[in-house]
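Review form for a predicted model. The reviewer records the input and the model, then writes brief findings.
Reviewer: anonymous (R2)
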Amino acid sequence: MIEYSALKGVPVLQALHSLLLGQSLPSRSQFSWEGQNLNDLGSGGASGQSGQLGSVGVGAVDKLYAAMNRMASAHKPYLWGGGHAGFSHDGPWDCSGAVSEALHEAGLLQSGPEVSGALMAWGVGGKGKYFTVYANPGHVFIILPDGRAWGTTNSAPGGGVAFHHHPTIGFVARHYPGL
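Model under review:
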């Protein structure tokens, strides 16, 4: 079940319409959660503590969403091992290569592309405010606050990257501190 009670400033019908059409994510500035505009991120608004994000900066969520939108719009087919020779802006990707690339473009992963099992230890445990990485030893994807999943999926042409729905049972939830 998708919970919209925490989503403020976006009419439910508009959010459902976008979800059903598989449209791109809106800018972070169009959303607020729990009364906090996401533009306050890093200035004490969303986290309650100034500077909690460190060198990541205020635009990390915007950069992540932009990378996710760009990669889904590229319509690249799934490629096992894709994105693991190094970060790959142009793909194609496998599930962990895609998640690694999106996190890297947002400044949230610097070490190099990670496999699904390694992403089980990325960040900190639990759900994030603006996105959550779900990983197990064989697969990884991202869930957004509106309930949509992002990552490689058989519902996309060639099994590539797309917005879709994915169960979270059997996966660990991870997020970047403060996000």
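Findings: The longest strand covers residues 132-135.
Further findings: Residues 7-175 form a domain with the endopeptidase fold (from Nostoc punctiforme) fold (CATH 3.90.1720.10).
Recommendation: see findings above.
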